[in-house]
């Protein structure tokens, strides 16, 4: 079975390509390289340059490679920036998804795994987020991901599309030294940048109602995430039923202070984080259960926090040396 991975040259998509290959499936990368990197795609995986807004490019890719399923990772993923660029966000994440689904229907491709986000929940007032926790996205990005889930649902009713959505929380680490997080907005690369440039990393607020006063979040290893994508693809190929959406969560979470301590421990660079004021809208805690995904998608937290930091740090240092 051949699976097209949109956004296959990105940090997450490139790990999904590897997981599909390891699971005995045939991946094909489709990426416009607006934030992805050609070097992230394995040499033995076909790589197509194209935009999900370009229906003809999608149709060519699906037809030429005999694609039977799609893992849809491509999109504009910066929640904070989406507030300043709502139209761009909706074009990429909503129009792009609708374009992809239309081409899939035309070409008879009836299965898809969608890259959704914890942003669909906004700032839930619960200790442990489940799949049924009310959705209250608070950015155009979160709204666009929720609309993406609706598009899959409605296309399932209209055309028999078989689908599931995987909601990501905070994805970190590296499963391959050649692939690392290059986002200018994510915590791990921001801390690494500060350490490399001999600046002091910053924590925004240490007076939250958490054990150490800093925000608690779900941090999951990108390789664990990728395994569950491959598991979802295999189940869809087998015609097995899946839930409409799964939370890929840790069940307990990690505080920002704990991450900073792990950063110092693993890198060997001693530092005391600078404490800044709270950022508006930052909740004290967002942690999700991954029980349904563990039941159906081989989801497990196979990596410790130190594993996550070490793999990310090694990949980052390797990149700077190449």
From TrEMBL:
Matching InterPro entries: Epimerase_deHydtase, NAD(P)-bd_dom_sf, UDP_G4E
Keywords: Carbohydrate metabolism, Isomerase, NAD
Enzyme class: isomerase
Catalytic activity: UDP-alpha-D-glucose = UDP-alpha-D-galactose
EC number(s) stated in the UniProt entry for this protein: 5.1.3.2
Domain of life from the UniProt record: Bacteria
Record keyword NAD present: yes
UniProt-listed SUPFAM superfamilies: NAD(P)-binding Rossmann-fold domains
Presence of the UniProt keyword Transmembrane helix in the record: no
Pathway annotation: Carbohydrate metabolism; galactose metabolism
Family: Belongs to the NAD(P)-dependent epimerase/dehydratase family.
Full protein name: UDP-glucose 4-epimerase
Lineage of producing organism: Bacteria, Bacillati, Actinomycetota, Actinomycetes, Micrococcales
The gene coding this protein: galE
